[in-house]
Write a structure and sequence with these properties.
Elements: E1 3-7, H1 11-29, E2 38-42, H2 44-49, E3 52-56, H3 65-69, H4 72-86, E4 91-97, H5 100-112, E5 117-120, H6 133-139, E6 142-145, H7 150-156, E7 161-163, H8 168-171, H9 178-185, E8 193-197, H10 202-222, E9 227-232, E10 247-249, H11 252-258, E11 261-265, H12 268-276, E12 280-284, H13 288-297, H14 305-310, E13 317-319, H15 325-335, H16 341-356, H17 362-375
Parallel strand pairs: 1-2, 1-4, 2-3, 4-5, 5-6, 6-7, 8-9, 8-11, 9-10, 11-12, 12-13
Helix pairs in contact: 1-17, 4-5, 5-6, 9-11, 10-15, 11-12, 12-16
């Protein structure tokens, strides 16, 4: 059996790929078939699951139209290395996760080499880049979608697509109660908690931390009994002089379960909050030029994924100049009151969003797709 090449572009992709590899390895262990050798671009989760890492994912992670330009030479060098692997004759399948600007180039190279491509966590063409749809249909053999409306859109453009459910549901199978989560974090069980999520990348932290902290201070001025905790990625270091609140690393679901309300940057963590049942407000700031470009190319009215899935603004959004700490605090105050009727309505709508994300088992479903595609390889 020939090798399987995995390519991810950031930490979340590494996490999801690692889960797929674990499911794939378990499926082969339960059969009499020897597993394929796995290699690729990834991080600690993929390495722990048994993937030979060709390039650490930390060298790639970048976002924003302007910011990407600085990483172009590094990306082209890696693409040349991956093309050499694809042309070696040893690769039987390519599995791509997210990161479309780079991964669609990998898919095209695989297509030229006659290698099938499975794309898991497909490009968000529903938001922008719809012109990529013909290209996806041309170079992707099978698409595994994690949002409930993506498979139908891709199918309309000739892509063999299947909705496999959102992998967050697997991580949320054993969520702690609010009382247990607060105990884990050393928080007072009887006082409200505001969870702050400024982002997982250095650029996000640089832009979000100051206004997010200012908002939390404003909330505490209005309600001194509010406890504030800041959730950050394990790789992030924050100066206590800049952020006076307790930092919790690598336990986002625990923080969300402990909290009464949240202030979140736009992204997947808004879906995490929906799964955890945490009412929240979304704030986002980026490079000024990146934002101006995004306003021209993004075709959806909301930036928070929770609102995209809901099809309406369930969680208030404050983007760029609209992010004024006092105004954001205004939106947070009702969410910190557990007796507030509007808070109860938001919690109910978040539960509806969770229901749209499918059922647990996305990693196992993708592992089945990988085996099926490998069985077709001569």
């Amino acid at each position: 059996m020939r090798d399987v090449l995995f390519v991810v572009g950031e930490a979340s992709g590494d996490l999801h790929a690692g889960k797929v590899v674990e499911a794939l390895t378990a499926s082969y262990a339960a059969s009499d078939v020897a597993p394929p050798h796995l290699l690729g671009v990834g991080g600690k989760h993929m390495a722990h699951a048994g993937v030979e890492i060709l390039e650490p994912v930390e060298n790639l992670a970048v976002m924003g139209f302007v910011e990407v330009l600085r990483h172009v030479p590094k990306h082209w060098a890696l693409l040349r290395r991956l093309r050499a692997h694809l042309e070696s004759g040893r690769i039987g399948l390519v599995v791509l996760l997210d990161y479309p600007g780079f991964n669609l180039k990998v898919a095209a190279a695989a297509k030229r080499a006659g290698i099938p491509v499975l794309y898991y966590i497909t490009p968000q063409v529903w938001a922008w880049g719809a012109n990529r749809l013909p290209r996806i249909a041309e170079v992707v053999t099978k698409a595994a979608c994690i949002l409930p409306f993506e498979d139908s859109l891709l199918k309309q453009h000739g892509v063999d697509a299947t909705f496999v459910g959102h992998p967050l549901l697997d991580r949320a199978l054993q969520l702690p109660s609010q009382a247990d989560a607060r105990q884990q974090l050393g928080l007072d069980a009887d006082r409200p908690v505001l969870a702050v999520f400024p982002g997982s990348r250095r650029a996000e932290i640089a832009r979000h931390l100051e206004p997010f902290v200012a908002t939390a201070r404003e909330v505490q001025q209005r309600r001194p009994d509010v406890q504030v905790v800041v959730s950050v990625a394990p790789t992030v270091t924050i100066d206590p002089a800049v952020c006076p609140f307790p930092l919790v690393q690598g336990s986002s679901f625990v923080v969300q379960r402990a909290a009464t309300a949240g202030l979140l940057k736009s992204g997947t963590n808004t879906l995490e909050a929906a799964v955890a049942g945490l009412p929240h407000v979304i704030g986002y700031k980026t490079n000024g030029l990146t934002y101006r470009i995004a306003r021209r190319v993004v075709k959806i009215p909301h930036i928070g994924l929770v609102n995209v899935v809901a099809g309406r603004e369930v969680s208030r959004e404050f983007v760029q100049e609209a992010f004024v700490p006092s105004r954001v605090a205004d939106a947070l105050m009702p969410l910190l009151d557990t007796n507030n009727a509007s808070r109860a309505q938001v919690v109910a709508e978040l539960d509806a969003v969770r229901g749209k994300l499918g059922t647990p088992g996305a990693s196992e479903r993708v592992a089945v797709m990988i085996r099926q595609l490998l069985e077709r390889v001569p």
